Amino acid sequence: GRLMFPIKSLSSQTVAFGCRIVAADDNAAKYINSPESPIYHKSEHLYGLYQARRASSQAKSVLLTEGYLDVITLHQYGFEHACGVLGTALTPEQVSRLSNLCSKVELIFDGDAPGRKAALRGAEMILARGLNCRVVLLPDGVDIDDLLKQEGPEMFENLRRNAPEGLTFCMDALRRDFAPRDFRPAARRAN
Questions:
Q1: Which of 43, 93, 120, 182 is the most exposed place for a label (fewest CB within 10 A)?
Q2: Who contacts 12 (Cβ-Cβ below 8 Å, separation ≥6)?
């Protein structure tokens, strides 16, 4: 089967489409997206931001996740300030666009190693832009759709409540992933 996702600009113009193709035999999903064009630059747009703009502006906050279906599920459960990156890592242009709408971004990423790495990069960019940030890591192997449908919104709210601030998350990641000896050569070069 095929699922089509219209991508809208903040002026409500449909500028591109995302398509998710699920093969019947092995249930493997493939994504096909519109190519870049004069009106569509993937690095500048966020899926669902047009629909989330009012709620994000009121809450002064946005929930930022990875997939199209994650955004749709969050909206269905009343989290109307959710939007998603378009199959790429978060970009400075996307962060700039968010900064015009809100002052706080909650990153929702998978708890596996790639998810943590993406969350770290995203948190660094968001903090550098002067926005507040929290990092909500989902349990490894569980996506937002599974979490909300199986565990309910209370579990998700609990994860949000206990999520670390962006700066704390970044510092913890540095402590966890880099031994002190990793910093010594750079310190010697600086002297």
A1: 182
A2: 50
